[in-house]
Amino acid sequence: MDDKYDVIVLGTGLKECILSGMMSVSGKKVLHMDRNKYYGGESASLTPLDEMYTHFNREDKPPAKYERFRDWNVDLIPKFLMANGQLVKLLIHTGVTRYLEFKSVEGSYVYKGGKIYKVPANEQEAITTSLMGLLEKRRYRKFLQFVMEFDVENNATWQGFNAKVEPMSACFKKFGVDDNTQQFSGHAIALHLNDDYLAKPAVETILRIKLYFESIVRYGKSPYLYPLYGLGELPQGFARLSAIYGGTYMLDKDVTEIVYEDGKVVGVKSGEEMARCDMVIGDPSYFKEKVKKVGQVVRAICIMNHPIPNTKDSLSCQVIIPQGQVGRKSDIYVCCVSSTHMVTSKGYYTALVATTVETGNPEAELKPGLDLLGSIEEKFVAVNDLYEPLDDGRENQVFISKNYDATTHFETTCNDVLDIFARATGGPFDFSKVQHLNLDE
To answer: What's its job (predicted)?
Structure first.
């Protein structure tokens, strides 16, 4: 361990593993350490199923009916990948796809008026959906045509609307889009966490909606992908990539001190050993004095013997409950996977319900989502604190990630990764040479 590195990465959560891989591919000499014996950190996959019960301090064991416990790979923080989104581009750019297999998620749904509806995935579904009335469908079609033809660099496609300046609320108003359609567009398609986006320049939301539908066009049923055998394959894939490019990994290695000279990080100690470095990247648990608590997330992982009702028996799906539908400030997220993604025994499903905590009774806040699941055989609930760094890290060269939010997709995770990369290297990540993923390979 006594050596000099360009970068030391602390923690093997997905964000840290992605950054380790990106830095290694960029020619940096990387040392990656974790106090745990396993990859994934708070975003780990638990296998066999016994590990799930142990993790949640359950005294009982999983019942024998769940069959081969090693068939289960339960993600503590399951999230779907947008097929045309940033994480898939990162996977392709860095070559990690060689270690992974993906399968499409069967459907994307939104909650409205006590029921769930499929988010239209094509023009035929848009025509037949009961999410909107006939006149609203016509208005929405014109809005989507504008979005899909929109080019931020070509003002001839703007139809007289300056999306760089005017707010998204004005864009909806221009096309006569009603409140209900705004809700599912902003939350289930553009994937905003709250309604703040309505007052911000419309360009970001337009590009998010465009990304959603471009992702559907690429793979069909929904815009989402999920790796076979669960998300635990992702950090390990990036770890293997880092190792190929010379990165050194040390699991089960305690960090006893982060060493500074003149206010800038110079190394990391583990007992009597010290590795020197130019910068450190890590998750908040390694930097208690350099982070602030900004909230909490409550998650319930549920085992069921049936798909989520009213999803056309989907073997995998996402449901978003917009905040306004249930009188909240933040959305509730639901996702479901099954043996089709090699994460459960045949005939069983795992569902996650998650949201940002707003009250003193977090589990009760999940009720609208839990009510959608039907009968639940097992339920594991956790409340996790959310931490963010106190500064941007440029001065002391310590770059700290944020904890994982309540969303069931990876777009906010990637935003954090790319932001850290830009601050640490002095420039943005270049996606220009990225090729598209072929699921049939």
So the answer is: Regulates the GDP/GTP exchange reaction of most RAB proteins by inhibiting the dissociation of GDP from them, and the subsequent binding of GTP.
